Inverse folding.
């Protein structure tokens, strides 16, 4: 435990945290200037995180017992490496708890997990206007995969293609 | 079966396809100008695709019984949607089998799967110089998530952060 401040604990989320996770997801969406984007319900989080077929994993950062942030991730796969990796969908520290090394501790936890499980990499995305985050990510050794464009097929277009 | 040419069949890959999948992964890496990038072995593919804890799923496209291409994917998760989605890691049609609608049929298969499983989206990445692919993806309704940058932490940097 010596590596983090003693006030800080990072623990696995449980089903009892579904409401807290949704609240943190909503706070993060507000920070990302998309407050209306969160359609997920507490039932969705319960089913997909803690049901019979988990679709994500989540850890909660607590500061003196108070929920201060979270990281939510799933396993991706690299056919070049022939190994799974971690895809970090959400990482967030509440404003009142910033500047205490909590974000770094969450990344440290995930990196430790990746090394322990023989995974090839940690991957995530960042909004291109979020310069403080980009600088932090570069400071911990992350690199921008700049020649890859992300494509998405959703909603009507997805349904149309399914019927094609 | 009426939606695709009769010569074409799309089937689930099995453990017996591990060697074929690796060959297709290598051909795709050559096309992506990264022939040395594939470190995966047939054992990796067997373990991660067809072992006790599958890390990916794969379908094979056959033309008149010949392996013509493949799609390899895993489940991602959207905390905004509260639903899983499909992340398409690799999609490839061998040069000799192009211009027959096989790529479109693979996408159609994945979209159908996404709709059947109530998934929120199909996501993948494309190299920014691959204009024919980008145009094809746009023609089937995909959109470029242009304000999101992909960050990666691998190798030495990942191990260093794990020890931090």
């Amino acid at each position: 435990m010596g590596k983090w401040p003693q006030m800080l604990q990072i623990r696995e989320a449980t089903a009892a945290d579904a409401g807290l996770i949704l609240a943190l997801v909503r706070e993060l969406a507000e920070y990302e200037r998309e407050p209306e984007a969160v359609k997920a319900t507490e039932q969705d989080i319960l089913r997909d995180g803690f049901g019979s077929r988990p679709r994500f994993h989540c850890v909660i950062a607590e500061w003196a017992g108070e929920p201060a942030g979270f990281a939510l991730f799933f396993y991706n796969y690299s056919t070049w490496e022939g190994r799974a990796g971690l895809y970090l969908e959400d990482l967030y520290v509440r404003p009142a708890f910033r500047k205490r090394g909590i974000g770094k501790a969450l990344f440290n936890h995930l990196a430790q997990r990746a090394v322990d499980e023989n995974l090839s990499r940690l991957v995530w995305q960042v909004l291109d206007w979020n310069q403080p985050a980009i600088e932090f990510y570069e400071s911990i050794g992350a690199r921008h995969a700049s020649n890859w464009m992300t494509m998405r097929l959703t909603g009507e277009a997805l349904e149309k293609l399914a019927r094609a």
